[in-house]
């Protein structure tokens, strides 16, 4: 795998909290160095918990120009990685200290860390793509009412890539089911496996590198 090492500067992208299902808003008045997108983990985490988080953070530098570094006094924008109620992040930059919740109960997995960091970097769930109806069928009657917003179609940063069942941003077949029946099924082949990614897929990495203009030809043909 090619490794892209150069730091970049990009124009800021902001988006409302993921739960509000908002479209991308461009903010052309700010610029952010990727090297200044920061992480400050809780001091009370165990060594094992910190290792999982650090592994997820450092994984981005192995296949993109994204670099996370520890918080420094005077930094204007950073990520606070905390153990709150659940796994969640705002989508895109919000300015100042920005919370990424990785609860000790159910969130400390490599794929989950990558998933939430991708939200912070501007990416939404795979099943919210505008073209998702060509690839999955949503069973609305099986979804918990308060969670249906997670399946609404919105503007997403696809970066010219195809729908990806193996994306770390793709929910699994029974996500937010209220009756133990599937909330999604792939089409036309309902037997296709999806939503089981243990780490970022090739498409996830390509989208990241294209959005942040990291490298040309990141993957060999």
UniProtKB/TrEMBL annotation:
Superkingdom of origin organism: Eukaryota
Provide the cofactor list for this protein: Zn(2+)
How the cofactor is bound: the record states: Binds 1 zinc ion per subunit.
The GO terms this record gives for MF are: metalloendopeptidase activity; zinc ion binding
Q: Which residues form the Peptidase M12A domain?
A: 22-216
The enzyme's E.C. designation: 3.4.24.-
Pfam families, sorted: Astacin
Show the stretches that span the lipid bilayer.
Answer: none
- Which GO biological process categories is it annotated with? proteolysis
Identify which residues the record assigns to the active site: 116
Residues that hold Zn(2+) according to the record: 115, 119, 125
Which InterPro entries would you find in this protein's record?
Answer: MetalloPept_cat_dom_sf, Peptidase_M12A, Peptidase_Metallo
Q: Which keywords does the record carry?
A: Hydrolase, Metal-binding, Metalloprotease, Protease, Zinc
Signal peptide positions (record): none
Q: What is this protein called?
A: Metalloendopeptidase
Q: Could you tell me which species this protein originates from?
A: Menidia menidia
Taxonomic lineage of the native organism: Eukaryota, Metazoa, Chordata, Craniata, Vertebrata
């Amino acid at each position: 795998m090619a490794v892209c090492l150069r730091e970049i500067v990009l124009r800021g992208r902001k988006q409302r909290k993921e739960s509000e299902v908002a479209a991308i808003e461009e903010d052309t008045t700010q610029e952010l160095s990727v090297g200044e997108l920061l992480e400050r983990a809780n001091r009370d985490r165990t060594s094992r918990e910190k290792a999982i988080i650090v592994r997820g953070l450092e994984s981005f530098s192995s296949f993109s120009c994204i670099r996370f570094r520890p918080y420094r006094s005077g930094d204007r924008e950073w990520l606070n990685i905390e153990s709150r109620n659940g796994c969640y992040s705002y989508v895109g930059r919000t300015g100042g200290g920005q919370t990424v919740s990785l609860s000790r109960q159910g969130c400390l997995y490599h794929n989950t860390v990558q998933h939430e960091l991708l939200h912070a970097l501007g990416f939404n769930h795979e099943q919210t793509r505008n073209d998702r109806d060509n690839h999955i069928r949503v069973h609305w009657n099986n979804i918990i009412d308060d969670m249906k917003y997670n399946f609404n179609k919105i503007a997403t940063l696809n970066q010219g890539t195809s729908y990806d069942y193996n994306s770390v941003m793709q929910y699994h077949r029974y996500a937010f089911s209220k009756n133990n029946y599937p909330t999604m099924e792939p089409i036309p082949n309902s037997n296709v496996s999806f939503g089981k990614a243990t780490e970022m897929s090739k498409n996830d990495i390509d989208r990241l590198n294209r959005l942040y203009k990291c490298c040309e030809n990141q993957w060999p043909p």
